[in-house]
Amino acid sequence: MNTLATLVDRFGVDVHAHFDGEVSVPVHTGLQRQGDVLIVPRQATTAASKRVPAAGVPVIRGVDGHTHVLLADGAVSYAEASDRGQVLGRLIVPEGATAWLAHPEHAYTGIGPGTYEIRRQREFRGTVQFVAD
Amino acid sequence: MVATYPRPRPPLTKLTEAQVARLPEIRDEWLDVFLGAGQTDRGRAEDAIVAAYGAAGLEAPKRFVWVASPKEGARVADVLARHAEQGLPGYRDSFAAGPLATDRIGRSPLVALRNDLRSVVGGKVIAQLEEEVLAHIPDHQLLGHSWFSELNRDFLREDAPYGLVESPVADEWRDAVHQMLLGRSGGPSIGYAAAMARPSAWALAKVPAAMTGQDGAAIWACLAALHEFGALDSAWLKAQLDIARLTSWWWPFMQTVVVSDRPVIHRLDAELRLHGGDGPALAFADGTCVWAWHGRWVPADLILSGWSADRILAERNAEVRRCAIEKLGWEHFIADGDFRQVGEAVDDPGNPGCTLALYDVPAAFDRADPIRLLVCTNGTPEADGSRRTFGLTVPSFIDDPLTAAAWTFDLSPAEYASLVRAS
Fold first, then answer.
1. pLDDT reported for residue A91
2. Is the CB of residue B419 less than 8 Å away from at least one CB of chain A?
C-alpha cells in the first residue's frame, strides 16, 4: 500500500511534520485538487510530451519557494503548456502506471491511468491574476 | 602591474567524499555570516581591508570611516565621490579620499577569478556547489528587490523619479558629514539625524558602487569552498573572505574606506526570506530599519500594531494588503470587516470538513472593478483553537460560493462539484 511515509521515502519530496505518515494515499482518476492546482480529466491532445524522470518535474514553483512536483511510477509523460495561461500542462498516465503530485504543505495526490490537464488557480483583482501557493 | 592572484592549482573535476561532506558545513558557516549581527571587530576588519588593498596592488588606505548602517555609508560615500569628481568647495581636507576604487578592489579581481575558475573547476563541481551551497544562502539583492534601494526611498523628493535626479548636496548634510569626518560631532548618527530632519532637502542621485560584505555570503561561500579544496589560492580572496565575515557594506576609495557595521537585528523565516512578525526584520544601530513580512516590504505599522480590516481595505497595493490579511488572519479579517454574505455556505467539494462562503466587498477594496471574497474555512480547529481560513477574490457577477470556486479554475460549477479529493 502507498502510505505517505513510503512515498516520501521513495521519491524524496518531504512533507510537513503534522501529516500522519501511516495514512494510505488514494489513487483517483477523477477531478482532484492539491492546494491551488487542479487535476482535470480531459481528452488527450497531440501535444508532444516527455517522460517524467525519476527526479520528477516541477509543475509550478510557488513564489514562496514551495513547488508542486510531478512524480512517476511507470511510463508517465507530461507536456508543459507553452503559453503562460491557466493550463500548466497535460498529463498522460498509461494503464498500470501511477502519477503522484507532491507538495510540502499538501502531501501527495495519487493520479491513476487516464489523460489530464493540470490547471492553476486564478483570482480577480481588476484583472485576472494567478494564485501563487 | 601586480597580479591580483597567483596561478590556480590542478583542475578540480570531482569532489572527494570528505569534500562533499564539507559542503553543508560550509553552507551553514556562511549562512551564519550572512545573518551575522552585533558588534563588529573593527580592528580585524581594517587589517583585512588593508590586506585586500595590498593584494590588489594598491597602497594601504590612510583613513577608515566607520558608520552604523549602509544607508549612512551610502551618503558619506556619495559626498566623497562627488568631491573626487567635482571638488566640493570649503571641505577639501576632510573630504579628500581619492577616487572610488571599487572596481580595482572588488569587481576586476572577482571577474578575473571567476573567469579563471571556469578553466580549472569542472562543471559537475560547480553544479554541486550551486545546489548544496549557493541555493541555500539568500542574497537579498537577487530576490528581485534590493533592500538597499528600499532603504534609500525615504530620501527622495516627492517630485523626483527614483534614482534619476542630480541635485546639489544639501548644505546641512555636507556640514554634518564634514563634522563627522573631523571627529567633532558626537558621532555620525547625530549629524545624520539633524541633516535628515528635512528630507525634502536631499535627493539621492546615485549610490556609489559598494562592496557588499556579508550580503555577498552566497558567492563567498562557494569561493571559500574552492579555496579550501585547493582549486584557488589567492591572497585577494582570502582578504575578501575575512572582510565579509566582519562587515556589512563598504566603499573603498583610493585613500579612504567607508565601512558599515553589521546590523543589530537580522531575521529570516523558514524559507530564508526577510521576515519580522513582531518587529523589524533588519535593523542597524542608527535606527535604520526594514520591515518585512515573508520577504515582502511592508510599512512599520503593519507589523507593530497590525492593520484593521478598514485599513486593509483602504490599501491600494495588493501585495501589502495580502501580507496585512495574513498577519491579521482571514478569520478576523472576515469578522472585523463586517462583509455581507452572498448566497448560502456550502461544503468544499472533495474536502470534508471545509466550508465555502462568498462575501460582498465594499467598492473601496479594488477601485478598478468590484469584487467578492470566496472564503474556505476548515471545519476542525487547529491546536491553538483557530480555524485555518483562506480567501480568494472573484468577480462580483458571481452569486454563490460553488460557482466562485469553479470560476477560480475556469470550470463549470457542476464539474467542480464532482471533485473527488482535495488536499
1. 95
2. yes
For the cut 50, the answer to whether the pLDDT of residue B261 exceeds it is yes
Average pLDDT over residues B198-204: 34
Asked if B339 contacts B360 with a C-beta cutoff of 8 angstroms, the reply is yes
> Which residue, among B309, B305, B253, B260, has the nearest Cα to B284 in the 3D structure?
B260
Contacts with B371 from chain A: Cβ below 8 Å: 124-125
| Higher pLDDT pick, B418 / B159 | B418
Query: Does this model's pTM top 0.90?
Result: no
Chain A partners within 8 Å of B135 (Cβ): none
Q: Which of A26, A119, A126 sits opposite B409 (nearest CB)?
A: A119
Q: Does the CB of A131 have a partner CB in chain B at under 8 Å?
A: yes
Residue pair B346/B401 in contact by the 8 Å Cβ criterion: yes
Q: In what order do the strands lie in the sheet with B250-252?
A: B63-67, B256-260, B250-252
Assess contact for B38 and B262: CB atoms under 8 A: yes
C-alpha B196, offset from chain centre: 23
CA distances from A58 to A15, B147, B198, B293 (A): 16, 29, 51, 26
Q: For B174-200, what is each residue's pLDDT tens digit?
A: 555 555 555 544 333 433 333 333 333
pLDDT of B8:
53
In degrees rounded to 5, what are phi and psi of residue A128? -75, 135
Which amino acid is located at B358 in the chain?
L
Cα–Cα distance, A84 to A128 (Å, whole number): 13
Set of cell numbers at residue B192: 545624520
Q: Stretch A64-92: mean pLDDT, rounded?
A: 88
Strands A107-111 and A27-28: parallel
- At residue A5, the pLDDT reads 93
Q: Tally Cβ neighbours within 10 Å of residue B31.
A: 19
**ipTM value of the model?**
0.93
What chain B residue is nearest to A103 in terms of C-alpha separation?
B423
Do B68 and B286 contact (CB within 8 A), yes or no? Answer: yes
Total beta-carbon pairs less than 8 A apart between chain A and chain B: 71
Question: What grid cell was written down for B100?
Answer: 572610488
DSSP one-letter string for B338-396: TPEEEEEEEEPTT-TTEEEEEEE--GGG-SSS-EEEEEEEESS--TTS---EEEEEEET
